[in-house]
C-alpha cells in the first residue's frame, strides 16, 4: 500500500528552557537552542498526516487555540488562530475530511487542537466530526485521574467531549491494532502513563511518531529528559532500548516539538545517538 506523509504545523509555543531540559544545565542546552530574554525556547506543535487508500490518518492535533488570552500568554502560545486547521486548508483539506485521529496522550499541547478556538462566553466544541479518536487505555485513565503534579496538563472538557462523541476508541495494551497492517504501536511510560507511539512501516525503513518520548532533536541524546517527564529514569531506559533497535532497521524519527526538523534519521558514532539528515518539512512524501 502506498502511503503519503505530510507534516502539518499547528500553533507554536515558547516554554522555559530549564523546564524543557530537566536536569541538564543551561550551559549545555543553550548550545543546542538559544533562549529568549525570558529563558524560553521555541517549540513547534507538529502533526503528521498520512493519506492512503480510502483513509486519512492524523497523528495528533497540537495545542490549538482553545486557551483564553491570559492562559495563551502563560503557556507561550504564539498565535491566536487555529494554525493546524489553516495548515490542513493549505493542503486542500478540511478537518471534516479526517478519518482517524491518533492521540499519543491527552496533554493539552498534543490534544488541545481537537477543540474550536476560544471565543468569549462560548464553550469549546470538538473538531474532526467524522474521525475516530484513538487513545491508549492508560493515557485515558491518567487524563481522567491525573496526579497533582500533572493535573494542569489536562483539559477535562476534552475527555467529556470525546466520550460524548461516540467515536472514541480506547486501546488496551492487548487490543488489536485498529490501523491495520503496516502500523505498530509502542507504549511508553516515562513521560506519562500510556504514551502511544506509532511506528509506520515504509520501504526505506520505519518512521516513528515520537510524541514526547523524544520531543525534538536534542532529546535523541539518551540522557536528556524534560522536567515535565513523570519518570525520567524509565524514559531513559525506554530510549536506550528503542533507539538501537530502530537504528538497526534504518528507522526515522518524526518530531512534534522541534521548530526546525520534522523528520530525521538516527545517527550513532559509537558513543551517542543523534538526529541526522533532518528534513524541515514533509509534503506529499512517499517511498
Give a nutshell description of this structure:
The protein has helices at residues 17-20, 26-29, 69-74, 83-90, 108-111, 137-144, 156-165, 232-248, and strands at 4-9, 13-16, 40-43, 46-52, 55-59, 100-102, 132-136, 168-171, 183-188, 195-200, 207-209, 252-254, 263-268, 273-279. It is α/β, with parallel strands linked by helices. A 6-stranded mixed beta sheet has the order 1-4-5-6-7-8. A 6-stranded mixed beta sheet has the order 9-10-11-12-13-14, with helices on one face.
Q: Describe it for me?
A:
By secondary structure, this protein is an alpha/beta fold. The chain has one domain: Ribonuclease Z/Hydroxyacylglutathione hydrolase-like (Metallo-beta-lactamase, Chain A, 4-Layer Sandwich). Helices cover 21% and strands 24% of the residues. It contains eight helices and 14 strands. The protein has a six-stranded mixed β-sheet. Strands 9-10-11-12-13-14 form a six-stranded mixed β-sheet, covered by helices on one side. Strands 2-3 form a two-stranded antiparallel sheet. A hairpin with an 8-residue loop joins β12 and β13. It is globular, with a radius of gyration of 18 Å. It starts with a strand and ends in an 8-residue tail after the last strand. The mean pLDDT is 96.
Amino acid at each position: 500500500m502506498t502511503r503519503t506523509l505530510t507534516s502539518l504545523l499547528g500553533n507554536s509555543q515558547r516554554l522555559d528552557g530549564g523546564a524543557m531540559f530537566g536536569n541538564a544545565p543551561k550551559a549545555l542546552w543553550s548550545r543546542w537552542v538559544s533562549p529568549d530574554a525570558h529563558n524560553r525556547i521555541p517549540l513547534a506543535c507538529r502533526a503528521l498526516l498520512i493519506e492512503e487508500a480510502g483513509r486519512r490518518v492524523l497523528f495528533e492535533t497540537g495545542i490549538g487555540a482553545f486557551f483564553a488570552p491570559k492562559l495563551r500568554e502563560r503557556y507561550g502560545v504564539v498565535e491566536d488562530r487555529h494554525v493546524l486547521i489553516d495548515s490542513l486548508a493549505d493542503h486542500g483539506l478540511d478537518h471534516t475530511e479526517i478519518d482517524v485521529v491518533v492521540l499519543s496522550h491527552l496533554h493539552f499541547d498534543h490534544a488541545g487542537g481537537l477543540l474550536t478556538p476560544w471565543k468569549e462566553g462560548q464553550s469549546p466544541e470538538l473538531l474532526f466530526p467524522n474521525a475516530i479518536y484513538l487513545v491508549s487505555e492508560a493515557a485515558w485513565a491518567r487524563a481522567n485521574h491525573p496526579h497533582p503534579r500533572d493535573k494542569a496538563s489536562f483539559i477535562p472538557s476534552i475527555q467529556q467531549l470525546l466520550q460524548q462523541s461516540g467515536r472514541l476508541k480506547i486501546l488496551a495494551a492487548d487490543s488489536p491494532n485498529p490501523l491495520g497492517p503496516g502500523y505498530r504501536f509502542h507504549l511508553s511510560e516515562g513521560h506519562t502513563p500510556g504514551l502511544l507511539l506509532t511506528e509506520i512501516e515504509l520501504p526505506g525503513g520505519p518512521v516513528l511518531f515520537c510524541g514526547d518520548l523524544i520531543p525534538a532533536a536534542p532529546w535523541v541524546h539518551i540522557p536528556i529528559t524534560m522536567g515535565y517527564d513523570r519518570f525520567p529514569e524509565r524514559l531513559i531506559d525506554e530510549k536506550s532500548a528503542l533507539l538501537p533497535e530502530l537504528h538497526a532497521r534504518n528507522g526515522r524519527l518524526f518530531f512534534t516539538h522541534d521548530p526546525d526538523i520534522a523528520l530525521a534519521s538516527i545517527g550513532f558514532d559509537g558513543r551517542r545517538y543523534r538526529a541526522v539528515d533532518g528534513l524541515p518539512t514533509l509534503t506529499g512524501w512517499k517511498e
